[in-house]
Amino acid sequence: MTAVVQAEGLTKYYGRRRGLEDLTLDIQPGEIFGYLGPNGAGKTTTIRLLLDVIRPTRGRVQVLGGDPRDPAVRARIGYLPGELALEGHERARDYLRFLGRVRGGVPASRIEELAERFEADLSVQMGKLSKGNKQKVGLIQAFMHEPEFLILDEPTGGLDPLVQHEFLAMLREVRRSGRTVLMSSHVLAEVESVSDRVGIVRGGRLVAVENVAALREKAVRRMELHFDAPVPAADFEGLAGVRDVRVEGAGVRCTIDGRPDALIKAAARHTVVHMVSAEPDLEEIFLTYYSDEEQHSARQESA
Question: 298 pLDDT exceeds 80?
């Protein structure tokens, strides 16, 4: 199957300032791809290149098997920008119906259905919308024509938790229908909960592309075991991937790097009455990648 996004050596400089450098990336059909990084990392520059809002300094990119400059390709994309400029006296409902006509005829019932799911009041004038309601209108216009490819830049800004939950449910529906999503965010939890893969970008460079499950395997997690009787400390010494072990009577606390297999096998020699595993924090993983990238850049500059 043809990749939805195929980028090779994609680079954009603004004068002497690097926006994005040497991005090589494939996004596959039916995939939710999370694009993560701090503000200014290059996420929005990437999106603007995919949409042909800006042109690359060098490199090439195909979207949906075609040139991003082709209007027929753009018609198959739904886009939510990171900053929405919705102004004027026109009511949100009229604005969305106008966009629906431009996009080939989106039924009014489809717009109303999405407004209900997002709890959006479409009777309000555009210039009087709150930040949260502007975001809801932006999401409705991105989803309403059921595009093959959704590009969402910081999509949950200003949304309350219940609406965020509904938004993530809609992303899962999009994936089940075989369509594709690129979601740029610095909110780790939302990306983790729905993404198949994540790309980590920093300073205009793609640091890593990982399967979310693989990221979890690399994660550091803290574990606590309680047994029905005191256990010998020697049973938990020198275990692969286990460190910072503290044995206190019938309790064992430790840190696991990756899989807990060795610890579980050691614990199975005794009667476990209680076990607590703190979920691995993806932020720690990302910070590790960022730190590694900074060290790599520093070595290159000193070379």
Answer: no
Query: Rounded to an integer, what distance in angstroms lies between the CA atom of residue 281 and that of residue 86?
Result: 36
How far is it, in rounded angstroms, from Cα 197 to Cα 249? 42
Give the start-to-end residue ranges of the domains of the chain. Answer: 5-215, 220-277
Domain 5-215, CATH homologous superfamily name and number: P-loop containing nucleotide triphosphate hydrolases (3.40.50.300)
The b/e string for 152-173 (b: 16+ C-beta within 10 A; e otherwise) is bbbbbbebeeebbeebbebbee
169 with 137: CB under 8 angstroms?
no
Closest by alpha carbon to 261, among 278, 282, 233, 240? 240
Q: DSSP states of 29-47 as a string?
A: TT-EEEEE--TTSSHHHHH
Q: What is the pTM of this model?
A: 0.75
By the 8 A CB rule, do 8 and 31 touch? no
Residue 286: pLDDT band by 50, 70, 90 thresholds? low
Instruction: With H, G, I as helix, E, B as strand and everything else as coil, classify residue 235.
Output: helix
Instruction: Judge whether 239 and 263 are in contact, CB under 8 Å.
Output: yes
The partner residues of 6 in beta bridges, in order of sequence, read 26, 62
User: Contact at 8 Å (CB) between 2 and 180?
Assistant: no
Spatial CB neighbours of 250, under 8 Å, sequence gap ≥ 6: 226, 227, 228, 229, 230, 231
Angstrom distance (rounded) from CA 77 to CA 148: 6
